[in-house]
Amino acid sequence: MLRRLTLSAKATLLLSLVVFGVVLALTYFMAQSSESVIEDDYRKRSINAADRLAAKLGEQPVFPSKSNLEDLLFGVSEKNLSITDISVFQVHGKEVALAATSSADETITASPDVRGVIESGKRLDRFGHDGKSRYVESVVPIHHVMHLPRSKVPIDRIIGCVSVHTSLEQADQIIEKSLGIAYFFAPVSILLLIIPLNVLFRFTVHKPVKRIQEAMARAEAGDLRAEVNLDAQDELGMIAGSYNRMLRQIGEATTERIRLIERINNFNAELKFKVDSATTELTERNRELRDLNAKLLKMQLELVHLERLAVAGQLTATFAHEVGTPLNLISGHVQLLIESFHDNETIARKLALVQSQIRRLGEIVRRLLDATRKPKLDLAPVDLNALVQNIATLIQPTLHSRHIQLFDRLDPHLPPIQADHKQLEQVLLNLINNSLDAMPGGGELRIETAPGPENTASIRITDTGAGIQPEHLERLFEPMFTTKEIGQGTGLGLSICRAIIKEHGGEIAVRSTPGAGTTFSILLPAEVPVLQAGA
User: Fold this and answer.
1) Is residue 102 within 8 Å of residue 66, measured between CB atoms?
2) 424: which of 16, 161, 288, 520 lies 20 to 30 Å off by Cα?
3) From the centroid of its chain, how far is CA 472?
4) Helices 267-340 and 235-265, interaxial angle, to 10°?
5) Residue 222 region, left (φ>0) first, then alpha (ψ -120 to 50), else beta?
6) Residues of 397-434 as b/e, b for ≥16 C-beta within 10 angstroms?
7) Distance CA 50, CA 63 (A)
8) Reduced to 3 states, what is the DSSP secondary structure of residue 149?
9) Cβ atoms 67, 100 nearer than 8 A
């Protein structure tokens, strides 16, 4: 049914429901507030009457006669017509008895509330219902203060209590009348609102919407000039303006579509030209890729050569140590023999010949050791970020073939350093090759650069490979130690890397978690120390 109503009818109905709900809500809250105010006023009247009466009766140690007390109670009741009855209870030892009451029933006994007030000495006020109407009851203790001649502290004694019973029947009638008036005016105000709203919506909503509908029907029939002319500046005027702009855009789109059809006729030739250009570019990229592979192979061969040189250096150092020590001992004993047989020319000459040959062997060992030592550092300014980018370009084909993703995070504020570009490149390639070997099934390789403490630069190479066992970490940089299978590593690569980094005055460290990957960290100073630079 709601779907068949017009927009103005729906808006009128919605506003009427909203106004009706607001009026009802306000009426309810006002009634609740009025009820609370009236109840509080009646309660205060009851309490004030009880307080004044208790204060007056507490001035004397004993109550007035019953007749005088009843006159006092009737006088208080006449001043406040809402008070139905007042009762005064007196304490006789441990008993509480009725002293006087304004009620016709003189058989009233002390209730538990009355006894509780006398025992606690605290006032009590509560609301209740007697079957006919609601009421509020206030029970106030009667205090009598005695001043003994020889005592400085007064004695406060409770001699009874006053119970004031106030009816709320009149308050309930006032609240009921207020609600009746509010509920009457709520629908009347809604009816008075519907008529002007209906007239207003007819002129401000119904007619403009009808004009927009008629224009849209003409546009649907193919008339792209069926615009709506509305002088209104409200939302409907904005809708009409948007509709007019949409019609103009449709016309422009139609013209553009015709032009596009003309361009499609020449699309084949343009497409062929782009395909030829893309083929040429792809051929150029393939050639660059072959060149990069060749360069990478050359650098890997150089790395193998460096490893072999390190092996030779290690063997030579071992040989020099194992052979040089006995030669020194033999040379010393021969020198002692020469001094012992200096008077025997023949033996002395033969011993001198042996001594010369021993010196010759020592010289041969020293020359062999010098031939296998690393060349001196060729220091020059090096941009670590550029070096990492060049290496990333070199290893890209290998990463692709092994299904490994490369992520780099290069700090643009990295300071330039003094280093041997070629040796530093060999170190990074060696570490990256180890990471690739640790990820035979693919994974992620991360290379990060960042400024370090005290004018240094750091490089971190992280892989998601199998990791290194904790017991192998301490021996990882030892010569001839490898965790790879036989024939897949010499055990000298990391030893050479550490030697090169040490020559640059830097540090290299490793952190690994089995099953999670490995991270190599390199820290290089911006300036190579004098001892390393001159080595």
Assistant:
1) no
2) 288
3) 40
4) 80
5) left
6) ebbeebebeeeeebeeebeebbbbeebbbbbbbbbbbb
7) 15
8) coil
9) no
CA pair distance 229, 226, nearest whole angstrom: 10
Dihedral Cα 320, 326, 331, 332, nearest 10 deg: 120
Q: In whole angstroms, what is the distance from residue 104 CA to residue 86 CA?
A: 11
- If residue 43 lies in a helix (H) or strand (E), which one and from where to where? helix 7-57
How far is the CA of 237 from the CAs of 7, 8, 14, 65, in angstroms? 16, 16, 23, 89
Q: Which amino acid makes up residue 527? A: E
The overall pTM is greater than 0.85? no
Question: Residue 133 carries which DSSP code?
Answer: S
* Full DSSP string of 473-517: HTTTTSTT---SPTTS--S-HHHHHHHHHHHTT-EEEEEEETTTE
- pLDDT tens for the 535 residues of the chain, in order: 556 666 666 777 777 777 777 777 777 777 777 778 887 888 888 888 888 888 888 888 788 888 888 888 888 887 777 888 888 998 888 888 888 888 877 788 888 888 888 888 888 888 888 778 888 889 999 888 877 666 667 778 888 899 998 888 877 787 788 777 777 777 777 777 777 777 777 767 767 777 777 777 777 787 767 777 777 767 777 777 777 778 788 878 877 888 888 888 788 778 888 888 888 888 888 888 888 887 777 677 656 656 665 666 666 666 665 676 677 778 777 788 888 887 888 888 888 888 888 887 776 666 556 545 555 678 889 999 999 999 998 888 889 889 999 999 999 989 889 988 888 998 999 899 889 988 988 999 999 999 988 889 999 999 999 888 888 888 787 766 676 665 455 566 787 788 888 888 899 999 998 988 999 999 999 887 754 554 4
Residue with tokens 């001198």: 352
Six-digit token string for 105: 């029933």
141, 151, 100: which is closest to 117 by C-alpha? 141
Query: Alpha-carbon Rg of the chain, whole angstroms?
Result: 55
DSSP, residue by residue, 351-414: HHHHHHHHHHHHHHHHHHHHHTSPPPP-EEEE-HHHHHHHHHHHHHHHHHHTTEEEEEEE-TTP
Q: Are 496 and 307 in contact (CB under 8 A)?
A: yes
How many C-beta atoms surround the C-beta of residue 109 within 10 A?
9
- Within a 10 A sphere around the Cβ of 8, how many other Cβ atoms? 20
Q: CB count, 10 Å around CB of 342?
A: 11
